[in-house]
Write a structure and sequence with these properties.
The complex is a heterodimer. Chain A is globular, with a radius of gyration of 13 Å. In chain A, a hairpin with a 2-residue loop joins strand 2 and strand 3. Helix content of chain A is 36%, strand content 11%. By secondary structure, chain A is an alpha+beta fold. In chain A, the strands form two sheets. Chain A has a two-stranded antiparallel ribbon. Chain B contains five helices and eleven strands. Chain B starts with a helix and ends with a helix. Classes of the chains: A alpha+beta, B alpha+beta. At the A-B interface, loops of A face helix 2 and helix 3 of B.
Chain lengths: 95, 205
């Protein structure tokens, strides 16, 4: 949603999210493939399924991560396209 | 009639007009098509329905006997519209948490994946009390047909995100099965106006 707060109990927040802060290397594949299973974000456990967006390119995914890292008060470092590309190649990206 | 009596009656008339002006503003119209039969107006009415909720309880029109309710259509794996509309439904749920005269019903348009256990988990994660906010599944055709009666569009569409195309409308039904208001559940400002409409309806009763 447009304030990064998610949907209580179902969709974890992106704003001030410890999971986002601590798992930067996983973000490219999460965005590309989606994810499921239990995760803990800011002390709350979530167990829903996130759909992937396989139609996105490595450049779009880089931009999305950088948007998340700097929006809603987040101040995580900007990621480089090279890191994103390398991570994506490991989870089946082949554009 | 002398001047004194005339002034007296004018004063009475004036007060009556002022008082009726105040009450006229706060009333919601009945929406939808209407027929006129033998001098009676037949308003658009929600037909009989029977679905099953997250507790495996049958939910019908009788479940909302004497109450108003808000209806919407969603599916659990919805990536785009539903998270936003469900967030607004949650806003309505919390705003009227202690109001027994209002219920909520969310119809799943993906009955294959949204089974009773899946709906139970979803509702529980959200923190929704099943006696107040029903998450229902049922016969797919029945759900898709009744969406029409709720002025909502629901289509299965492989090209659409998540596989279903649907409007994010939230609809307000009164205790007589008439539609009294609706809003765009993806627009928080429109939902704010909708919240006020719900209050007007509840005050009408």
């Amino acid at each position: 949603m447009d304030d990064g707060s998610g949907l209580q109990g179902i969709i974890p927040p992106l704003a001030s999210s410890d999971y986002v802060r601590n798992n930067q290397g996983l973000l490219p594949c999460i965005i590309y493939q989606g994810m499921s299973g239990k995760i803990e974000v800011n002390g709350t456990t979530y167990d829903s399924e996130m759909l992937g967006t396989p139609q996105l390119t490595e450049f779009e995914i880089t931009n999305i991560i950088n948007y998340i890292n700097t929006a809603w008060g987040n101040d995580y470092p900007v990621v480089q396209h090279k890191m994103v590309k390398e991570a994506l190649l490991k989870c089946g990206y082949n554009k | 009639m002398n001047l004194k009596n005339l002034s007296f009656y004018a004063l009475i008339l004036f007060s009556v007009i002022i008082n009726s002006c105040e009450t006229k503003v706060n009333s919601l119209p009945i929406l939808g098509e209407r027929d006129f039969i033998n001098g009676d107006t037949i308003y658009h009415t929600i037909p009989d329905f029977s679905f099953i909720n997250q507790d495996s309880q049958i939910v019908t029109n009788e479940t909302f006997e004497g109450k108003a309710y808000v209806a919407d259509f969603f599916f659990i794996h919805c990536p785009t519209i539903c998270p936003i509309t469900t967030k607004q439904m949650l806003r309505i749920y919390q705003y009227f948490e202690n109001e027994d005269r209002l219920g909520l019903i969310a119809h799943s348009i993906d009955p294959v994946r949204d089974t009773v256990p899946a709906l139970k988990r979803y509702a529980k994660n959200l923190g929704a009390e099943s006696s107040k906010w029903h998450f229902v599944t049922g016969n797919k055709r029945d759900i898709y047909e009744i969406a029409d009666d709720y002025f909502s569009i629901v289509l299965e569409d492989k090209e659409a995100a998540g596989g279903f195309d649907h409007s994010g409308r939230l609809i307000l039904i009164d205790k007589n099965r008439h539609i009294r208001s609706f809003c765009d559940g993806t627009d928080p400002a429109d939902v704010g106006r909708f919240l006020k409409d719900i209050e007007i309806l509840l005050n009408e009763k």
